[in-house]
Design goal:
Number of helices of chain B: 8
Number of strands of chain A: 19
Strand content of chain A: 15-25%
Strand order of the largest sheet of chain B: 4-3-2-1-5-6-7
Number of domains of chain B: 1
Strand content of chain B: 15-25%
Distance between the termini of chain A: 50 Å
Helix content of chain B: 25-40%
Number of strands of chain B: 7
Structural class of chain A: alpha/beta
CATH superfamily of chain B: Aconitase, domain 4
CATH class of chain B: Alpha Beta
CATH class of the largest domain in chain A: Alpha Beta
Distance between the termini of chain B: 41 Å
Shape of chain B: globular
CATH architecture of chain B: Alpha-Beta Barrel
Oligomer: heterodimer
CATH topology of chain B: Aconitase, domain 4
Order of helices and strands of chain B: EHHEHEHEHEEEHHH
Structural class of chain B: alpha/beta
CATH architecture of the largest domain in chain A: 2-Layer Sandwich
């Protein structure tokens, strides 16, 4: 018998009742992260059935999706002034649901409020070997720590609230080996976009990916999170990276990690999670990134991506493809470079952490955002905001003419006040370029924070390697 | 949830690949705290113009499409976000089965939890269905078969317990609750505690 992979070790440790031909496994969830958008229906279900939240101390609650990114001093008095009634109602429902069911909420006024996938790691709630779910598909982010994180719908949110378990069949496994030394101006976002371009938006369906190789080992935790975050854009169930010294150093001293002797025991347990040398995978892909260029998307899914200097492929007679580039108003056979930009968005669970903001600040320092561009920079959490301000990054951003906002999902998904107008083109550090994702009729070009910053300054899609 | 053992209906065909859940229900409709009545937001940006008028050339708007229960969609249907509003809206519109050559994982799970049958067929059957909108097709959940008008039969896979729940019209929660004693024993026997309060 061969050895076990990281995923298999985490899977096996959480099986409460093994699967049979007739029934899936009862699978234990260590950490449940909840937000205001995908939980109200689950809480309603609990109320209707007279059920309680079984383990409130394993629930991490915040508000991020429909929240405004302008300051809210007082939920009762100032929310309505900056929010539409329905999102405001949803935000208030979240406050009530958490209070009614005994869940601590990191809401407005909390130093820990922020995007679900930013605050989990930041407070040390995300740990190697944990199973982590959230009613949000980008829960794959937590896999950067060697956790198994995946998105679930509202019904399953209800299952976890009531029982701390889910019914699951064991997914298949896939190894993605990333090799080669990145060139300056090329980063984690470019790696994951290139991978999705290579395997397709369904390339990982039914699989849990493990990212391996020297390139991955050389990335910091925030860069690893960017990669695992977009795993779902390849259709995979989860994306994981084995814990190593980088992981341990990131977690050391964070609020929710074990302390004292328990820390040492945890580190020992975590370091044993790495895949055994003879572990096997159902599928394997290798990506050499030594010659990788910055990547930009040109269509309406993340696999429609090209190196920044390369032309947009010709759709030929592929109708879905034609529909997509017609929507984007993009010309086939020409590069995206030089395309006029209306908005630049730096933020989202993909790219709103300190590494991202520092990279953007390096490019914006001493430069100006072009007159035709609105640039929003939205920190992933209150803590990121505070840290960035301590480092003076906010001054660099505002001096360049960018807007520095409050933490939240913001313009990633067009369900709060930050939206694109019809026809506007946005270079965005977020994760989805679906039609209308950032606002009805809006056109999204996904790129790294460096490409976004370079494009903001140039007023057109620009190559960051020319300004770093 | 209705019990579904088999259903026979003409098909509605949406011949687009990689339809994501942002198209099925755009994010601005996710601000509701209820799950009923969400059908009006189904494919909102493809079904309606900016003034809310139906766009005549969208397949779900065709007069003959009304009341049909089977949607045939391009490859990789339901990719993207975990919003359960997507199957709620499809179900609310009256559709009870979605057929494609590939269906995204989270959407598939969410559908199974809501009495919407996700059906993945071989590419030849899929191609035939895409090319023959309005064909009368039977989706047999019990036999895991799709039967075409010419008598051809395609099989599909569905997780056996989810199939049982769809056929009985029940939620999977019941099975989890039956195992609560095992869940408690699991918690007591493990070597570390995942509580956020440690």
């Amino acid at each position: 018998m061969g050895g076990k992979s990281l995923f298999e070790k985490v899977w096996d440790e959480h099986v409460v009742v093994p699967e049979t031909a007739d029934t899936p496994a009862v699978f234990y969830i260590d950490l449940h992260i909840i937000h205001e958008v995908t939980t109200p229906q689950a809480f309603n279900m609990l109320r209707e059935s007279g059920m309680q939240v079984r383990k409130p101390d394993q629930v991490l609650a915040t508000m991020d999706h429909s929240t405004p990114t302008v300051p809210i001093e007082n939920l009762e008095e100032s929310l309505d002034a900056v929010s539409d009634p329905e999102p405001a109602n949803q935000i208030r429902a979240m406050v009530k649901n958490c209070a009614d069911f005994g869940i601590e909420l990191h809401g407005f006024g909390s130093e820990h409020r922020g995007i679900v996938h930013v605050i989990g790691p930041e407070i040390g709630a995300t740990q190697p070997g944990k199973t982590i779910v959230c009613g949000d598909s980008h829960s794959s982010t937590h896999g950067a720590f060697g956790a198994m994180g995946f998105g679930i719908g509202a019904t399953m949110v209800g299952h976890v609230l009531a029982t701390q378990c889910l019914l699951m069949r064991k997914p298949k496994s896939m190894a993605v080996n990333v090799t080669g030394k990145l060139k300056p101006g090329v980063g984690a976002k470019d790696i994951i976009l290139a991978l999705i371009g290579r395997i397709g938006v369904d390339g990982g369906t039914g699989h849990v990916i493990e990212y391996r190789g020297d390139t991955i080992r050389g990335l910091n935790m925030e860069e690893r999170m960017t990669i695992c975050n977009m795993t779902i854009e390849a259709g995979a169930r989860a994306g994981m990276i084995a814990p190593d010294a980088t992981t341990i150093e990131y977690l050391r001293g964070r609020e929710k990690v074990p302390q004292g002797d328990a820390w040492d025991a945890a580190v020992e347990r975590w370091m044993a999670l790495a895949s055994d040398p003879d572990a096997s995978f159902d599928k394997e892909v290798t990506l050499d990134v030594a010659e990788l260029e910055p990547q930009v998307t040109y269509g309406t899914n993340p696999a429609m991506v090209v190196p920044i200097s390369r032309p947009v492929p010709n759709p030929g007679d592929n109708q879905s493809y034609r529909k997509s580039i017609d929507y984007m108003q993009v010309a086939a056979d020409k590069p995206m470079l030089g395309t006029k930009v209306d908005v630049v968005f730096v933020g989202s669970c993909t790219n709103s952490r300190m590494t991202d903001l520092r990279n953007v600040a390096k490019i914006l320092d001493g430069r100006k955002v072009a007159d035709n561009v609105r640039m929003l920079i939205v920190p992933g959490s209150e803590s990121v905001k505070k840290q960035a301000e301590q480092e003076g990054l906010d001054k660099i951003f505002t001096a360049a003419g960018a807007e520095w906002r409050e933490a939240g999902c913001s313009m990633c998904l067009g369900m709060n006040s930050d939206k694109l107008g019809k026809g506007q083109l946005c270079v965005s550090t977020s994760n989805r370029n679906f039609e209308g994702r950032q606002g009805p009729g809006g056109r999204t070009v996904l790129a790294s924070p460096e490409t976004a910053a370079a494009s903001a300054v140039a007023g057109v899609i620009a190559d960051p390697r020319e300004v770093i | 949830m209705e019990k579904i053992r088999q259903l026979t209906s003409q098909t509605i065909v949406l011949p687009i690949d990689d339809v994501d859940t942002d198209q099925i229900v755009p994010a601005r409709f996710l601000t509701t705290t209820e799950r009923e009545g969400i059908g009006v937001s189904l494919f909102a940006d493809w079904r309606f113009d900016k003034d809310g008028n139906e766009l005549a050339d969208f397949p779900l708007n065709a007069p003959e499409a009304q009341g049909r229960q089977i949607l045939v969609a391009g490859r990789n249907f339901g990719c993207g976000s975990s919003r359960e509003h997507a199957p709620w809206a499809i179900y609310d519109f009256g559709i009870r089965a979605v057929i494609s050559s590939e269906i995204a994982d989270i959407f598939r799970n969410n559908s199974l939890n809501n009495g919407l049958v996700p059906v993945v067929v071989d590419t030849a059957t899929h191609r035939w269905l895409l090319e023959n909108p309005g064909a009368e097709v039977t989706v047999d959940v019990e036999a895991c078969e799709v039967r075409l008008p010419d008598g051809k039969v395609a099989t599909f896979e569905i997780e056996p317990f989810a199939r049982h729940c769809i056929m009985e019209g029940i939620d999977q929660m019941g099975f989890l609750l039956q195992n609560l004693d095992k869940i408690e024993a699991f918690e007591q026997n493990r070597s570390w505690n995942p509580s956020l309060n440690v």
